[in-house]
Design goal:
The chain has helices spanning 42-49, 72-77, 95-100, 106-114, and strands spanning 4-13, 16-26, 57-62, 65-67. The chain is an alpha+beta fold.
């Protein structure tokens, strides 16, 4: 039995079907990537899984137990959350600190961050990094 099982998941909006009978299984510790064209339903699937949207049909199971998250908080309490695509990360914070920002109370964030390993001595701290780079790739202009 997979840790995460999605069976027959559908999500419709007025005039559009975003998900139509999606099936997905994932074992604990696996890493998966969703790849598809714009409008294929990748974001909708993640929003349903994280409790932001409710499915129109289908079932989600975690460790064999059916779940139906009515809010992102309910999903987080069950251990499911999304790292949203966000281009305005705080440059003075590490990637991990940005990911955990806003999750739980400040004591929760501090507890989570205190368990992270120290930064590698060979890497610059975010405060000393160039404010222009911020982790985004840049393509040369005019090519």
């Amino acid at each position: 039995m997979a840790f995460l099982e999605i069976r027959g998941l559908s999500k419709t909006f007025p005039g559009a079907t975003a998900l139509d009978g999606v099936d997905l299984s994932a074992e604990g510790g696996e890493v998966h990537a969703l790849v598809g064209a714009n409008g294929a339903g990748k974001s909708t699937l993640m929003l349903v899984l994280a409790g932001v949207l409710s499915p129109t049909a289908g079932e989600i199971r975690l460790a064999g137990v059916p779940v139906a998250f009515s809010t992102p908080r309910a999903a987080m309490e069950a251990g499911v959350s999304i790292v949203y695509q966000e281009t305005s990360a705080l440059p003075e914070m590490t990637v991990a600190e940005n990911i955990f920002l806003g999750r739980g109370g400040s004591s929760t964030a501090i507890t989570c961050l205190s368990t992270l390993p120290p930064r590698s001595a060979g890497l610059p701290s975010p405060a000393s990094s160039s404010s222009r780079s911020r982790g985004r790739s840049r393509s040369p202009r005019g090519s």
